[in-house]
Amino acid sequence: MRLGTVLLVSPKTSFGRDLQRTYAGGLGTVCKDEDFLLPPLDLMRLAGVLREDADDIAIADEEVTGVVPSVEPGTTVICHVSLPSLLEDAERLATFRAQGARCYAYTSIRSPAQWRTLFERGGCEGVLLPESISFARAALAGDHTVPGLVTPDSLLDPRHHQPAFGDLAAEPLPARDLVDHTPYMFPPIARTGITSINGSFGCPYPCRFYCPYPLSEGRKIRTYPVERIVAEFRQCAELGITAAVFRDPVFSFHRDRTLELCQALKAADTGVPWWCETRIDRLDEEVVAALVDAGCVGVEVGVESGDPDMQATAVRKRLNLDTVRKFHAVARKAGLKLVFLFLIGLPRETRMSIRRTFDFILELGLADTEFNLSVITPYPGTELHQIAVDKGWIDGSQNAFTSHNAVMHTDELSIGDLERASRFVDELHAVCKAGPAERAEFQARVHAWSTGDA
């Protein structure tokens, strides 16, 4: 079956360019005052799969281009839907539906309540989940049995929460040629012309208690063949793309494969630098050296908390802070840029543990660009979300689920506590650029707050 005209859309929303749809396991985050912008990788992957059966195919990132397209009746439209912008995205789907399009939502959200909104308010025929990308041609041709396709009749099918993924080795290259990459940027490596890329999917770690990546991508690590990733780098070089940001949850999970990939990228010599995200306990000096040698400019690593008690009890990474200190020294010696990812507001978090996280950041001497500190978000589908619902902790509306807004309290922290901590985070970024006196004054105020004296 020919698909006719296909339009894949990242809709314009009130969040503007601050909405990063590929973050938070594809649920989307809103990153205010940050100047990075990633291209619509999932839509490029879908286009790569669908283009063979389409008479005409295009990708529209409405926020970036400023163009809000209209469609002819019979066009198949797939809109990328994020959690904070769900209602706005549903309205955009409804607009296309009113123009006579066949409408589908693409999303990483795994919650029947949100899917129902897309059917009832967006008027879409189906919801495509991440595992549907391999089977997208069959799904759009009318096969409702393929993995990752949700219809009104299969809304409550438990298979949608235990995804079956297709063969990554058989997936065509993303259709990067359909997107002008010039506006996209990731300042640690390039301020224009960057792309995003996946080498693997999935995360088996117990941080799935609060992290949405295992929810959307599964718990099993699935990898593209090394030669396929090298082919993507060659594609990027041919298109004039300046750098690549890997979106893998745990880039270096398989140590031997990581070393093999680094050797292959070095040999390919495409001149495309790259960035990745991984875990500290999946990096050692040899791997760090191999990353740098292969063109890796920097890595993001999750730490979550700078409080030893939180690491031992609440944070599911179970990191020894001395391990973090050692890794920090190794990476700096190797010339590898770093961004440490911290999180405040988990159950068992207190004012004192938040203070210790701030102190740890200052102890490491991190620059204001070398850390990101998010507020806990109870993402639908995670165990934390169910606990938060049962305990009545959730205070914020869904469009505030941005990872930077305080949307839930806990037995230990009020919404006011988390809002105050968020303001301290903003100050901390400024303090990291200031002198010793300003740092000491900041720490004194945080210490007074942590003990209830302010």
From TrEMBL:
Task: State the source organism's domain of life.
Answer: Bacteria
Record-linked Pfam families: Radical_SAM
Which PROSITE patterns does the annotation name? RADICAL_SAM
Name the keywords, alphabetized.
Answer: Iron, Iron-sulfur, Metal-binding, S-adenosyl-L-methionine
**Domain named Radical SAM core: which ranges?**
185-420
Q: Which cofactor does it need?
A: [4Fe-4S] cluster
Stretches assigned to coiled coil? none
Question: Gene3D superfamilies, alphabetically?
Answer: tm_1862 like domain (3.80.30.20)
- The protein, known as: Radical SAM superfamily enzyme YgiQ, UPF0313 family
Record lineage: Bacteria, Bacillati, Actinomycetota, Actinomycetes, Pseudonocardiales
